[in-house]
Amino acid sequence: MKIVVDLFNQHSGNFSELKRLSSLAFINGADVAKIQILNSERIWGDKSREYLELDYYQVEEIFDHCKKVGIEFLATVFTAEHLEWLDKLGIDKYKIASVTSSFKTQSPEDDKALCREIIERKKETYLSLGFQSPNDFPFGLKSHIKYLFCIPKYPTLLDDEDLINFPDKFSSQGYYGYSDHTLGLAAGIKAYMNGSQIIEKHFTFSNSYQKTNEKGHLCSFNPESLRVFRKIITELSILNQ
């Protein structure tokens, strides 16, 4: 299982902390460090998360930093302009968020155009399905589209009613991986046992950093839990050989 850590809001607008998070993720067992190139007004209709936005030069710097550290870089984009930034950096692997794949930002038509542009490139694309009905794959089952089962609640409790739709067998049900917002490690371990190829989960210095506009901390890996999770799935992979 590939571990993708989402560093989205966990840096709280401090760019130096974003770089430190990516290094710490690598040290503790993550395979991929993912950022989200936000546009607060596009997603939420206001400037409440503007302090989390990155400019092109910051994206370039965190991309170069990840390359030096040795951790793969991935980015979620929400606008055509930000897709052009990835092109400029030579990045041809993409992540589409649930809010975009379901056309739920402030500009649904632009969401549709962005999804179409990315998917028509036929490059590897991780696509979260947080707002679709179970087993609804809106862009068809194509080899380059890696659908992620997702419940977009921050955090998702382990007795949440929507977890009843958790895939029993990921690949045979059309899912490639799991975008995890649950508390703790149990759901991620279950995903591994059920055949998920990747897990995407937020990563934070501390789960206690939860704020009104930073709701991912509680459901994040922290350095210790990431290290434990990596150890568990490594041991399980040995048992399954």
Helix content: 25-40%
Cα(first) to Cα(last) distance is: 14 Å
Note poorly predicted spans.
Answer: none
Mean pLDDT across all residues, rounded?
A: 95
Using the alpha-carbon principal axes, give the shape: globular
**How much of the sequence is in beta strands?**
15-25%
CATH class: Alpha Beta
- Sheet with the most strands: spatial strand order: 3-2-1-8-7-6-5-4
SSE class:
alpha/beta
Question: Which helices and strands, and how do they pair?
Answer:
Blueprint: E1 2-6, H1 15-27, E2 32-37, H2 40-44, H3 56-69, E3 72-77, H4 80-89, E4 94-96, H5 98-101, H6 108-120, E5 125-128, E6 145-150, E7 177-180, H7 186-193, E8 198-202, H8 223-239
Parallel strand pairs: 1-2, 1-8, 2-3, 4-5, 5-6, 6-7, 7-8
Helix pairs in contact: 1-3, 7-8
Relevant terms:
single chain; 241 residues; alpha/beta; TIM Barrel; eight-stranded parallel β-sheet; globular
Description:
With 241 residues, this protein is of the alpha/beta class. It has a single domain, classed as Alpha-Beta Barrel (TIM Barrel). The chain is 35% helix and 16% strand. It has eight helices and eight strands. It has helices at 15-27, 40-44, 56-69, 80-89, 98-101, 108-120, 186-193, 223-239; strands spanning 2-6, 32-37, 72-77, 94-96, 125-128, 145-150, 177-180, 198-202. It has an eight-stranded parallel beta sheet with strand order 3-2-1-8-7-6-5-4. α7 (186-193) links the parallel β7 and β8 (198-202). α1 runs parallel beside α3 (56-69) and α7 runs parallel beside α8. The longest helix has 17 residues, at 223-239.
